[in-house]
Amino acid sequence: MAEIKTRATEVTVEDFIAAIPEARRREEAAVVDAIHRRATGQAPKMWGPSIIGYGSYDYVYDSGHAGTMCRAGYSPRKGAMTLYVMGDHYGALQGEADALLARLGKHTSSKACLYIKKLADVDLAVLEKLVALSWQGMNEKYPA
């Protein structure tokens, strides 16, 4: 089985954010960090070279592939701020997630990622509720 590349590292989140070349993206990364800290109650760690993650959980796929990943996280990528949320896996919380996404503002999404080009384009209070809802859903799906 292939080795898992995305794992917690010793790089500090502060050093990673400080090294982001674009000033706006650095500022946005700090805002999204504050949102995650409030929503999760966790201090962040770097996961792999570019994911800022909060908490962790162990998973096992039907194929037998197993690993550990952050429960919540984001990556301040050049093209868009990528937030790792439960996407279409909210279960009983899906209706609430859909309502929040409808109010969020300009974004795109995939199965478990939310992409925001500029934080100015979204409602930060709604974004924080989405992060908190995803955290709640992860805790229900993967109890500690």
Summarize the structure.
This protein has 144 residues and is α+β, with helices and mostly antiparallel strands. The chain has helices spanning 13-18, 23-40, 94-104, 124-141, and strands at 44-47, 51-54, 57-60, 66-69, 72-76, 81-84, 108-109, 113-116.
Number of distinct beta strands: 8
Unreliable spans are: none
Give the count of helical stretches.
4
Count of discrete structural domains: 1
Distance linking N and C termini: 26 Å
What would the CATH topology be?
A: Aspartate Aminotransferase, domain 1
Q: Give a short account of the largest sheet.
A: 6 strands, antiparallel
Tertiary shape: globular
Which structural category do the helix and sheet elements fall into? Answer: alpha+beta
Percent of residues in helices: 25-40%
Please tell me the overall pLDDT: 92
Radius of gyration: 15 Å
Query: Architecture in CATH?
Result: Alpha-Beta Complex
The run of helices and strands is HHEEEEEEHEEH
Spatial ordering of strands, largest sheet: 1-2-5-6-8-7
The CATH class is identified as Alpha Beta
Assess the beta-strand content as a share of residues. Answer: 15-25%
